Amino acid sequence: MTDISTIFENLEEVRATTPLVHNITNFVVMNTTANALLALGASPIMAHAPEEMDDLIGIVGGLVINIGTLRGPWIESMIKAGTAASERGIPVVFDPVGAGASRLRTDTAVTIMNECNPTILRGNASEILTVAAATGAADKQRVAAALAAAGGANRGVDSTHSGEGISDVASDLANEYGCTVIISGPSDTITDGDSLITVTGGHNLMTKVTGMGCTASALCGAFAVTAGDPFDASVSAMAVMSAAGAVAAAQSQGPGTLQMHFYDALHNLTREQLEQAIELEWM
């Protein structure tokens, strides 16, 4: 069972081994997520040319795919890298940013789910519900009920909806694809279809800094390399993210200083800070 000791051990393993994580991510967050991985103790590659995907997948420990700013060649790179990583047993983290906001995003998300076999899927409630509905992975009645509970409308990357039934949909999705699903929000819900846990922590100020969700996905990529078990990796990444956010917010005057202190908190996070800043609840 994942607990504070396991989470901190996984953090120490990242710091000790410096996993190399390839990120095909969006223009908005490239610098932010690369610096977060460095602060955590990992090593990022931020590359997107289709011509180099085969070479890069041969040297990295993990892959993070983020569809925040889509273009045709980038989609080609994502599918090429994701397929190669899956075939080689390299963990793939998929962040379906804005799925449901446009047909391109939704169709791309479905293609990546079906062709790249993600190890970890992380998104907000609207994004996860969209992926579940579009892939047909979850029971339609469950999706409809969860959408109704979440308010119905898809707000894309800004969604903070949660509601009854969303964890059931996430479990359906996890079972269908054999992956771990993370629903980010005020509390993060994590399931592999069998186990389900919520991680509560962080700070509301984190919602005022762009790319925090994308950063969480990047951290999942690092932990997926070293933790071995995708569920443990997901819980560890979200717990460390939340704890670092809480520690940073306590020292910050606003969004600008939060980001600065967040990097420092990631770099220096202690077991004691983890224990004080987050709450784990098994469901």
Structure described in brief:
This protein is an alpha/beta fold and about 280 residues long.
Question: How is this structure best described in words?
Answer:
It is a single chain. With 283 residues, this protein is an alpha/beta fold. The protein has twelve helices and nine strands. It has helices at 4-17, 30-40, 53-57, 72-87, 103-116, 125-135, 140-149, 166-177, 212-227, 230-249, 255-268, 271-277, and strands at residues 20-24, 43-46, 62-66, 92-95, 120-124, 180-184, 187-191, 196-200, 279-282. It has a nine-stranded mixed β-sheet with strand order 2-1-3-4-5-6-7-8-9, sandwiched between helices. Helix 2 (30-40) links the parallel strand 1 and strand 2 (43-46). It is globular, with a radius of gyration of 17 Å. It starts with a helix and ends with a strand. The relative contact order is 0.15. Residues 155-161 have low confidence and may be disordered. Pathway: Cofactor biosynthesis; thiamine diphosphate biosynthesis; 4-methyl-5-(2-phosphoethyl)-thiazole from 5-(2-hydroxyethyl)-4-methylthiazole: step 1/1.
